[in-house]
Design goal:
3 helices, alpha+beta, 17% helix, single chain, 9 strands, 195 residues
Amino acid sequence: MSQKESFISFMKFAQASSKDALKEYEGIYFKYYYSLSIPGLIRKSLVSISLSENSSNIRCIEPAGRELTHSGMASLCKYYGDVLFLGDRLFTIEYERLSRKEISYSVYFPSYMYPARILTGLSLGVSAGSRRQPAASRVVLVSADKQLSVKTAMASCGLFKPTDDTIAEHVKRLIENSVSQGESLFFARTIDDLQ
């Protein structure tokens, strides 16, 4: 068996074994993290996790915000990918569907609250800027209100200054990309870190 075949076999196994655990994570989320392409600003995106008979998928739509583009038009990124539940963690791998020039990878702590409300983790990707620098960022998924329409949810997304009051303080603390004294690695924060 070739390496490619063994990887594909593992992914099929991982998807099949993830299904039951992922049922409680199915739904719509807001994703928050510091933008890789416009450092210093917080990006809020819309994410869906969905399950089908043969797969578990994640989709993310990221509007940049009209005020931050030269044309006055909101730029948009669409990420499609797979989500797996392995070793008590959620793993996602996504590709940018429009440009097809980017893959991002994230790992999240599961939520032990039912239903799942907040997932914290780390994400690794490439800046959409001209230098296309690889970068890592803390990331948070917050479950969206089920009564919220997709149009209203999308309208609330975009890029925000860290001082913007529309982003909850606990979210800002969870995505802050700082390293504590004595840390030699970049760790995801957990809800316990807020205490």
